[in-house]
Write a structure and sequence with these properties.
Layout (H helix, E strand, L loop, with lengths): L2 H24 L4 H15 L2 H12 L7 H6 L31 H8 L1
Helix pairs in contact: 1-2, 1-3
Length: 112
C-alpha cells in the first residue's frame, strides 16, 4: 500500500471514529432525539469536505458506522445539496445562513 493510500485510509477511519463519537454521545438521548441530534451536529460543525468523506463511507456501505449514525444519514446534508434533507436544520428563517449550507461569501454578497 502506498503512502497516499495509507493517508486516505487513515482519513476515512478518522471520519468513522468522529461520527461514531457523536453518535455515542447522542445515544444517551431518547432515540428520535439522538438521531436528530447526530445529524444536526454533523450538519452544523462538519465542513463540506468532511461530509463528502463521510458520504463516501456511507455510499460504500457504511462499514464501521454505529446504527444511530446510519439512521441519521437521511437528515445529513450532502455537500452541494441546495435543499436540506427532511427534518434537517434549515438555518435562519428563509433557509439562509451557514447552517443552511450557505457559504460565507454568499452571505456577505447578500448583505451588501
Amino acid at each position: 500500500m502506498s503512502h497516499d493510500e495509507d493517508h486516505v485510509d487513515n482519513g476515512i477511519a478518522k471520519i468513522v471514529r468522529m461520527a461514531n463519537q457523536i453518535g455515542t454521545f447522542f445515544e444517551s438521548k431518547p432515540h428520535a432525539e439522538g438521531v436528530a441530534g447526530t445529524a444536526e451536529h454533523i450538519n452544523k460543525f462538519w465542513e463540506p469536505r468532511m461530509r463528502r468523506h463521510f458520504f463516501e463511507v456511507v455510499d460504500a456501505g457504511g462499514a464501521g458506522l454505529k446504527p444511530i449514525v446510519l439512521e441519521a444519514v437521511a437528515k445529513i446534508r450532502r455537500p452541494g445539496d441546495t435543499v436540506p434533507p427532511e427534518g434537517a436544520n434549515a438555518g435562519a428563517p428563509g433557509g439562509k445562513g451557514s447552517a443552511a449550507g450557505e457559504a460565507k461569501a454568499e452571505i456577505a454578497a447578500s448583505q451588501g
